Amino acid sequence: MKLLPVGRVVVIGSVTTDRILRCPALPSPGGTVLADAAAQGFGGKGANQAVAAGQMGAATHLVAKIGRDAEGEAALADLRGAEVETGAVHTHPDAPTGQTIVLVDPAGENIVVVVPGANAYLTPEEVTAALARLHLLPVDVVLTSNEVPAECIRATAAALPAQGPSGGTRWLHDTAPAGALPGPGPTGRRPLVVANAAEAHRLTGVADVTAAALALADRAEGVVITLGGEGALVAADGRSHRLPAPAVRVVDTAGAGDVFRGALAAELARGAELPAAAATAVAAGAFAVTAPGARGALPRPTDL
After folding, report:
1. How far apart are CA 227 and CA 221, in angstroms?
2. Three-state SS across 219-274?
3. Has residue 150 been placed in a domain?
4. N or C: which end of the chain has fewer CB within 10 A?
5. pLDDT tens track, the chain, 304 positions
6. What is the distance between the alpha carbons of residues 47 and 93, in angstroms, rounded to a whole number?
7. How would you classify the pairing of strands 16-22 and 98-104?
8. Where do the H-state alpha helices sit in the chain?
9. Do the domain assignments include residue 240?
10. Is residue 222 part of a domain?
């Protein structure tokens, strides 16, 4: 039975089918490895984050685009089975559903390659119309990532209502795949940025993760830097603090960042303050690495 969150989570993101190859070692440039095993599943940052937020009890909506193919139909059925609202998942008549190729080594580290397919054809008009139909409320959380066209992220920023005395719709932006930080929308709204340490370095040129987080926080509502097995770093209002991760047996790190972001969005939609929401997200991300696949271990609140 679902918890009853205060707000909804609305994800503007991607949908893919995943091909997971378990390898004795990750290949070096120019190298070849023989995979030990192969498996197929569902993925895409947007879909993963939406399913993770839903598992954490949030009423979740996904705005995305799939192909008119068997892979798209299967991905859509999977999302509906996870109780994600898919009324704003559009179908492209020609482009195929996106694909993700994941190579995983015995330690659980991975290399990911995404073929965008239909995800690249999501339009800003479709995003604007979807957000207008949802009538965003101050308690809602909107989550974007760089796996959709940049103009869709700009359309999201433009659709956010102005911040009132009781706050405004929270905007989270996942900086993966690494790209430019989105600017503020017409109402001046900036996102809460979620990045890993490498992305924070690319965006700021600063090697020290704490200094990079504080530099990013000057350009955003706040920053959460994910640090893998070391937990996360939260920075806002000129201050920062670390959140440690529980020790777990790592099976596969693929999708752990998406689970972190989905859990973070769900907790913020329930009204949690940022540090508490990020602490729960750290626990969710740790839970996610204990099984193979991007959605192999999706936590519910009782698991944490």
Report:
1. 20
2. CCCEEEEECHHHCEEEEECCEEEEECCCCCCCCCCCCHHHHHHHHHHHHHHCCCCH
3. yes
4. N
5. 454 458 999 999 999 999 999 999 999 999 999 999 999 999 999 999 999 999 999 999 999 999 999 999 999 999 999 999 999 999 999 999 999 999 999 988 889 899 999 999 999 999 999 999 999 999 999 999 999 999 999 999 999 988 765 668 999 999 998 888 898 888 788 999 999 999 999 999 999 999 999 999 999 999 999 999 999 999 998 999 999 999 999 988 888 999 999 999 999 999 999 999 999 999 999 999 998 877 888 999 999 8
6. 20
7. parallel
8. 45-55, 70-81, 124-134, 150-159, 197-204, 209-217, 256-269, 274-288
9. yes
10. yes
State yes or no: is 303 an active-site residue.
Answer: no
Domain count along the chain: 1
- Tokens 């994600």 locate to 84
Largest Cα–Cα separation, the chain: 58
Q: Tell me if residue 286 falls in helix, strand or coil.
A: helix
Helices (H), 88-191: 124-134, 150-159
Structure tokens, 35: 């995979």
268: left (phi over 0), alpha (psi -120 to 50) or beta: alpha
pLDDT value of residue 1: 42
Domain range for 135: 8-27+37-291
What DSSP element (H or E) covers 173? strand 170-174
Residues 6+ apart with CB under 8 A from 189: 157, 160, 162, 163, 168, 171
Rounded Cα–Cα distance for residues 67 and 302 (Å): 36
Is 145 inside a domain boundary?
yes
3-state percent helix, strand, coil for the chain, nearest multiple of 5: 35, 25, 40
**Which of 69, 252, 258, 303 is an active site residue?**
258
CATH number at residue 145: 3.40.1190.20
